Structure prediction request, 1368 residues.
Amino acid sequence: MNVGLVGVTGYSGSVLFELLLRHPQVDHINLYGHAQKVAQSLEEVLPQLRRRDNILPYDPADIMKNNQMVFFATSAGVTTKLAKPFLEANFPVIDLAGDYRLKSRDVYKHWYKKDAPEDQYLQQAHYGLTDFYSSKGEKYVANPGCYATSTILALAPLVQNHLIDPTSIVVDAKSGTSGAGKKLTEITHFSKTNENLQLYKVNQHQHIPEIVQQFQEWDENVPYIQFTTTLLPLTRGIMASCYAKAKDNVTEKEVRDAFVKTYSDDTFVNATEGVFPTLKQVVGTNFCDIGYQLNPVTHQIVIISVIDNLLKGAAGQAIQNFNQMFDYAPEAGLNLSPVLPI
Amino acid sequence: MNVGLVGVTGYSGSVLFELLLRHPQVDHINLYGHAQKVAQSLEEVLPQLRRRDNILPYDPADIMKNNQMVFFATSAGVTTKLAKPFLEANFPVIDLAGDYRLKSRDVYKHWYKKDAPEDQYLQQAHYGLTDFYSSKGEKYVANPGCYATSTILALAPLVQNHLIDPTSIVVDAKSGTSGAGKKLTEITHFSKTNENLQLYKVNQHQHIPEIVQQFQEWDENVPYIQFTTTLLPLTRGIMASCYAKAKDNVTEKEVRDAFVKTYSDDTFVNATEGVFPTLKQVVGTNFCDIGYQLNPVTHQIVIISVIDNLLKGAAGQAIQNFNQMFDYAPEAGLNLSPVLPI
Amino acid sequence: MNVGLVGVTGYSGSVLFELLLRHPQVDHINLYGHAQKVAQSLEEVLPQLRRRDNILPYDPADIMKNNQMVFFATSAGVTTKLAKPFLEANFPVIDLAGDYRLKSRDVYKHWYKKDAPEDQYLQQAHYGLTDFYSSKGEKYVANPGCYATSTILALAPLVQNHLIDPTSIVVDAKSGTSGAGKKLTEITHFSKTNENLQLYKVNQHQHIPEIVQQFQEWDENVPYIQFTTTLLPLTRGIMASCYAKAKDNVTEKEVRDAFVKTYSDDTFVNATEGVFPTLKQVVGTNFCDIGYQLNPVTHQIVIISVIDNLLKGAAGQAIQNFNQMFDYAPEAGLNLSPVLPI
Amino acid sequence: MNVGLVGVTGYSGSVLFELLLRHPQVDHINLYGHAQKVAQSLEEVLPQLRRRDNILPYDPADIMKNNQMVFFATSAGVTTKLAKPFLEANFPVIDLAGDYRLKSRDVYKHWYKKDAPEDQYLQQAHYGLTDFYSSKGEKYVANPGCYATSTILALAPLVQNHLIDPTSIVVDAKSGTSGAGKKLTEITHFSKTNENLQLYKVNQHQHIPEIVQQFQEWDENVPYIQFTTTLLPLTRGIMASCYAKAKDNVTEKEVRDAFVKTYSDDTFVNATEGVFPTLKQVVGTNFCDIGYQLNPVTHQIVIISVIDNLLKGAAGQAIQNFNQMFDYAPEAGLNLSPVLPI
Prediction:
């Protein structure tokens, strides 16, 4: 099968390309640059990938003719402008950006400070949270955000089973610098980032409404979450440290049963009571590892989830959506080694 | 004035020694090793300090004869065994370890897994939280713990002024590896720590009862705190990310007034509304910088405090206690440069 | 095919295990622990590998019965003691340790401070420098050392073609901490290693005689090399910065021709004139990237080579030897992604 | 005494400012911004310094009227344009930039790609290599470069005493990212720099002619040096790993005597035979630590020197020059603590 990829030069795009190169069902990957007029060689822009593929100019008709589906690994706002022909043609798209994740145009505009896609297109999009929904048969998949994935997976069993006070959720999320992309910024200048912790977008991160939208699908009583983001002096990985007050009378067993029921058959999510994962144990893999514990003194539940932000938080989950869409094995293309030693 | 220092070889002890060498009121520092029988040269054990001072064998009578006061920078359990002669003689001691911080022997034994000092001695000890209590005239000062300092300073204005739900406190604290000391451990092996986050002592850190004891001094309704600790891939610094539910009707102004009232005259604590400190801005200094914000959506108050764990969290606060004890200027010996660039 | 692996718990052993799990020609891997009496579960000793394989007690007869070959990823000295039955039986072994690399027992003893294997066995061993010699048909392969690999590959074209003054070689080699293994040491304690450079084993590294032995194979006039090793504050990778005086009249073209001739058909070595590789571009891969330049002012040739010490410098090259031994495709099991972003 | 400082916002300028604030002979520091028209507050541009000093518009007459001397911590090219009035007036200047270090205008232009200062002014400038020349009585001091300082101090005893083959010098120099300044660049983007080594300006670094010029002062037979620079994943510090062939018959004793003679009375340079310094042992201090060893096998001398690039390599040496200029104690303002633990 041939697949198209728009936006290989960003961090998620590069990782996705490496995954696709090794995917057993992918014969050929056509690369497209949405901002260029003539073909370029990948070697010119990313020599470190050791590939001579051409990056073709962006042309929807050409993409649809030469591929069975297309990935967009572009920044926010791009697919709002570009995806229409694919949506109209019902051509399969997996979109790694945030444009089609939020169902409300107003909410999108408020958090992203950009115009949202048209409502009819938004409603066509499927939120590709692979561990809860299948993309089988879907045409336009909005791949979840990295912070959203780690936070939703951490809290899902508790929200779905109504085990926590819905107004008590606190998420202290931490991310490596690759989450901030390749753009040069003050906050990611080595002399600033190294030996440092820096908060950013406090109470303003655009993944907040994505998380809340999903929680409200499961429990309409979740009004909001308290969510902060801290930049770590390391490259890859997200840890979401989550706290929520257990409802009165909720027991350790109920908490455990909720996690076991939710994840015991999941290929990529592992939840363990009382053992907290380290960040590095998932880096280089598509796993989401979760540790949880009901503190009998405070009656708070602590839930720590870790993912590789570029894999389970982006390109890896995109491959999961691809596998679901085309009915391939869940782990196809995702049998990855962690970055040892861990 | 001559001062004694027992335990120069640990991280806190070394930093304290460097501070004392530059303190304008200190004429001479006598070093003592509590576990050695004969004098050693500092050059043998810590050549990197570039000093040839002798480390003298431990002898309480000798210490009291040759110094006006003594610092203990020893690990937990040592002063429980050694401090008695000084307490009996009412000789001034500043103790950087945890032995005399908790007023309850049972609580100490529960959290430290060691026998506590005798009750009469515990009651003589003063908890040296310099921004709230003065050590002037005190004889035995228990210098606060690093996590305790950062957490208490972050939340004090809210607890003292009863602005938060006392059962809602969540602290997500992070520390650099120097907090774990010089002992070789799995968790601080470079190949393990680097590019990683590791939780440790979840719900079991011995600074939890120290924090709760202090909060209950101010508000007997604080029953406990939810407190986790995460090891960072960096050497120096603690960030305590604190969350608490504002009581109904509490306003931004009340929160701001509490912080302003508490810290506007404080030499080393700076609290700013809506601006969150970076960790590195305090490393190398004795400052505690705090940023706080009432989130109008969640009605949670986010409070982020940062300190250098070896200075404000240990040796720096010990110098503050020393200055208070002997009525020196608050900033004497603490006019430090940060580790630029920040 | 079934393969045995003795020593999965070290860093090289773990990485080798992950490679073997994904190798298309390997059906089953039997794990053996050379220091244990009863079977253990891998989950107990290395839960982060997410595998429940048993680690079987060490038994040569059992190993030879159940496998077509065996890897040893043990520390120096172990195969000197254990390999004899395999050598006697002409059973295929790939040994990642240094025991069988040096042809002279005296040299081994001098540098390793251990007794060498018996001479007859030493002479049976093949030095598995895959880019220059093939292991096809060999029975006992001594897999090269990490520093040796990076240094030999950097200088081989110049030594083989006699383009440099053989007494002028200077190698300033740098390694990440994974090269020092999982043993806890002062030098790899995070608070020591981080933000630091530390030299170690100056003029005493046991890879020096391995490099010199190989160079003398190619040019008996190379009497020695000047070689230093510096520990870097990062986990994976070796950079060997090599300097050698070009012989009088040697031209840029001759230098270039030597590198092109040597490596243009090599699967894993890439040499480029005037472009110096970064360390990270090979981490996670089996590549050795080399940049070289004849400085017209000093008439020195600068050659920079980079490898992942655990792959091309250990487990990756072991797989290359395995592929050569059994006539599999050179890249089988080694189609690896780098750790992006690079 | 009042001193002026032009360029406080760069890394060297900030560090210099912190040193001057604590210098016992400095009463007041006037800050000047060479690119601004109106006074700004330091708080606006560098709030992390916790100072409310004004940054005054640049006006040479004003500077000379209100200060007894002025420091320039500006980038290359600025003092070429601005320093003339001070040179004409014989007003004391310490210039941290490279503009006045090279005596030849052509050499400057070749390496800096900028026009050099006029020849008459160049000849007035004193090269402030404090451990070899005194700035006492000098009016315009060109403070040495960071790489130049570490390299010259490492090799000076050998060059001055003609103990090495003058064509054999190889310097493998490594620097933390603060040496690259605060400008955002690809090479210092955290996701690029972290876990990486990157060479830059190979054979093209502008400190090469500065080093050669100095060596030729001491031994006209030194024609050049082989010099490479590698960017490290850490913030502060330079290690210069130097190699040079001992002349025939040169003995260990002669090497040792040269170092002892040169540095035994030096306040800030420590040279030790056979013990190689770690980078971190000098970070935060003005020391240059040197380890050296004659390798009896290769007859190469290995010399490793380490400095803090922002102190001994910039602002610290500038303070040394200041102390020499005005006859203050050598260590005035430089009694600094290292960044422990080391």
